[in-house]
Design a protein that fits this description.
About 50% of the residues lie in helices and about 10% in strands. It is an alpha/beta fold. It folds into three domains: about 5-85, no CATH class; about 95-110 and about 180-295, Rossmann fold; about 115-175. The strands form three sheets. The chain has a five-stranded parallel sheet with strand order 7-6-3-8-9, sandwiched between helices. Strand 1 and strand 2 form a beta hairpin.
Length: about 300
């Protein structure tokens, strides 16, 4: 069905008719009062003027309330940022492109994975930070955080096995992951801009419970996305095809209508193998250009 062929919802037509009837009725009364020379003509005139202003405002507020309660974008909530977009029968924005879903990785895309500053803030010099990184963030054992099957102590035990000579430092530094990822100010506005333009916004990330709980400020953007998968909750990580398929099943995604943004090329390769569009994140400007090439406008 074409956008022009979509009928106005019944409730809007009923409200419009009620408003028209009220206004027309009052002006008929005003005309009658004026023709009969009634002393109440002035008061009726003032009432008509007031109603002409008040009735549309009350109808607007009622439609806005319906939109707020149902979560639908109505004519009352339409703003300048989306007024030039196509809308469905409920007023929700229809994306201009074939793409209808944008999926984001999190680390180094929506937040900064700031492991070096995390260790620096704990008082370790550069040589020690580099040594600790080899035993932790650059080791295969780091994936255990994201898989979510082990406790924090069990993961740190594995780090210690990688470099027993710095056991004290490792246990002290990784007793928690508070502030190991840091906020990017562009993240929430980016998500909101995409959603205003009608795109579903999801996350698909290898991420740990410890980082989510220890970095609440940086992770506040999770309140703005439409959902997604954090690996520790489902115990599967990228680039395993299973985590991509799980996202598709859970959110009923059409591969050709989905674009994935990740900073790791291998993760993008898998998405493309499954029929998604993929963009390797290098910079905001580069990603925005590639989204624009896919006709994703926001």
């Amino acid at each position: 069905m074409n956008h022009e062929e979509i009928k106005t919802p019944v409730y809007k037509r009923v409200l419009a008719i009620i408003g028209i009837v009220i206004l027309v009725g009052m002006y008929i009364v005003l005309l009658f009062e004026a023709l009969t020379g009634s002393p109440d003509t002035y008061n009726v005139f003032i009432g008509c003027v007031t109603a002409t202003i008040a009735v549309p405002i009350l109808l607007w507020l009622l439609i806005w309330s319906i939109g707020a309660l149902t979560g639908r974008h109505t004519v009352a909530s339409l703003d300048a940022m989306s007024s030039n977009k196509r809308h469905d029968k409920y007023g929700n924005v229809i994306p201009d492109s074939e793409i209808d879903t944008v999926v984001f990785d999190i680390g180094n895309v929506l937040v900064d994975f700031a492991w070096d500053k995390f260790l620096e803030d704990k008082g370790y010099d550069k040589p020690m930070r580099e040594r600790m990184a080899k035993a932790t963030v650059f080791s295969e054992d780091w994936n255990e955080y994201d898989i979510g099957n082990l406790t924090n102590d069990e993961i740190v035990d594995r780090f210690v096995e990688n470099d027993p000579g710095i056991e004290k430092e490792l246990r002290n530094a990784f007793s928690d992951l508070k502030d190991i990822v840091t906020r990017r100010e562009r993240t929430i506005p980016w998500i909101n801009a995409l959603k205003r333009s009608g795109y579903k916004v999801l996350v698909l990330s290898n991420f740990s419970r410890q980082a989510v709980e220890g970095c609440s400020d940086a992770m506040s953007f999770l309140d703005y996305v439409d959902g997604g998968i954090l690996s520790y909750r489902d115990h599967v990580i990228k680039p395993d095809h299973a985590i991509y398929r799980l996202l598709m099943e859970r959110y009923d995604l059409a591969p050709k209508k989905t674009v994935f943004i990740d900073d790791t090329p291998r993760n993008i390769d898998v998405a493309i193998e499954l029929g998604w569009h993929g963009i390797v994140f290098k910079s905001y400007e580069q990603v925005e250009k590639e989204l624009h090439d896919l006709n994703v406008r926001y």
